[in-house]
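tool_call predict_complex ligand=zinc ion
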Amino acid sequence: MSEDNSLEQDIGKLSYLLNQIKEPIVCVKCSDEFMTGQTDAKSLQDYSRIDVGFTERGIQLWCQRHQINICHINFNGQKPEVDFRCLEKKEIK
Ligand SMILES: [Zn+2]
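tool_result ok
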């Protein structure tokens, strides 16, 4: 078993694995283009094309469209808790 036992196992406490985003991180250029009506995308989310990944410093968000850094989070050498588990809401029919 390779599962990290320090992660929460109680399904009632796993709501943080659902979308909890309060402040989206966006590319300034994509946002400008969307807000000024230069695209026919229905939402900024549809317009954005973002790479996310671990780096030497921490985690970087990179705009594929503009080939620019959006955000680079520095972990300062720390190893924050990371949870890659997926939690899907069951559809009730
Ligand atoms: Zn962009």
